[in-house]
Model the fold of this input.
Amino acid sequence: MSLLPEPRYPSVPELVSAVRELAAHRPRLCGLEEVGASRAGRPLHLLSVGHARRAVLVVAGAHANEPTGGATLLSLVHRVADDPRLRAGVSWHFLLCADPDGASLHVTPAPRSLYDYHLGFFRPAGPEQPEWSPSVLPPELLPPETRALTAVVAALRPYLQVSLHGTELGGSWVQLTRDVPGLAEPFRKSAAELHIPVETGACDAAGWPVSGPGVRVMPAPGTDPAYPSLPDDARHSTWYEAHRHGGMTAVVEVPMWASDLVDDPVPHPDPAGAQRRLADRLLRDAGRVEAVLAEALPRLDGPEGPLLRAARWGLG
Done:
């Protein structure tokens, strides 16, 4: 069981309120600004701590259903503000929530179980996800959240961008746009201190080069993707924007609920059979959802909204 300092995840308004208070209390060190607006007009907030040209950019809330990022960001903000050693020659910049519209639709701030979590679940369709949209849309159709994020990267020119992500159940792992030799060991120690297992076979990074336990390196632009059939492609995500300015991105994944099974190196006794059973279950469950959707569609009024677009995208 992981050690959680808070019994719930902070909402976007709570994040903004907390950092606004910090910026007001320490105006010489911190600055809070709006760097754009969402499709629905919600502001995108950037907190800057320190004034050095060498910059780190931390992004939370890119996926609405991964609330661990906001809590992590707030904890890191206070650590950076309180420890001058972390600011030696480096400024830190925190995009509080890359998708405030999506965050407003994912409504489980204090889930007590996976079932409870999924009762209020929302994850936008791929074209509406700020980091992923460039992999599925032409530049002229990118959502304003994506354009704001890439503008921040262009302005700050960070040597490191850290994107905070999460998973429902499992362990922690990191995905890099450029290998960092030796990262696996301190990453393992950090996870162990927090009682979080290191996930060595994350499905998100299947087929990607392994730098060490829990550390995967994304396919670079110009190389072949691991699975060409997938609609989204990390090679065209905003994670590679930092490379335009000599930087790199680390995508850090942490679980809401930890499971020691994810770092078990013992081979499965029947991997092909297990995959067939899971595929059959997935097809069966997807068919049930499609039937519910088909039954509900004639009764829906008005234009298609984000919930329906997300459902269609999830069903493929």
The mean pLDDT is 93. Strands lie at 30-37, 43-49, 55-59, 91-95, 160-170, 173-176, 210-212, 215-217, 248-258.
